[in-house]
Amino acid sequence: MDQKALEELVIKKINERGVTLEQIAELTYFLQSNYYEGLTLEVCLHNVKAVLKKREVQNAVLTGIRLDELAEMNLLGEPLQEMVDHDYSLYGIDEVLAFSILNVYGSIGFTNYGYIDKLKPGILGEVDKKGKAEGCCQTFMDDLVGAIAAAAASRIAHRREV
């Protein structure tokens, strides 16, 4: 699959899970607006799209979404099925997958990610809540969305002149 087709597939899969790039851009804005006077949602959206062009990010997103889908179909097998279904706090692999996205943009991404993962503002709270509904698994999705937003915020911070 060529790069553009893969990028389009990733965006389609994100959308199918109930998240838009604009909502991820709103999280990016939430993270950076206090540090960047005049920051716009358009700039945030541009940076979200730039993050999603990275092959490492695409691979992480596709892997995490597929694991959520397989969990919804009860195809993971035990004990993994139960751990993913219930988003056990000690499972942690969902965060590890998110870290692979954050590694692309440096240490500031980790602090940004930790902050919004704890607060779960905007779409993150919605995804987390949806994931607790019967028959729906968003164990990986909320961490992926948070990581994309945090990486985009890091990208903005790295490119901003001080």
TrEMBL record:
Q: Name one GO molecular function term.
A: phosphatidylglycerophosphatase activity
SUPFAM superfamilies the UniProt entry points to: YutG-like (SSF101307)
Q: Which residues form the YutG/PgpA domain?
A: 33-158
Q: Which Gene3D superfamilies match?
A: PgpA-like (1.10.3760.10)
Residues spanning the signal sequence? none
Source domain of life: Bacteria
Q: Which Pfam families match?
A: PgpA
GO terms (BP aspect): lipid metabolic process
What's this protein's name? Phosphatidylglycerophosphatase A
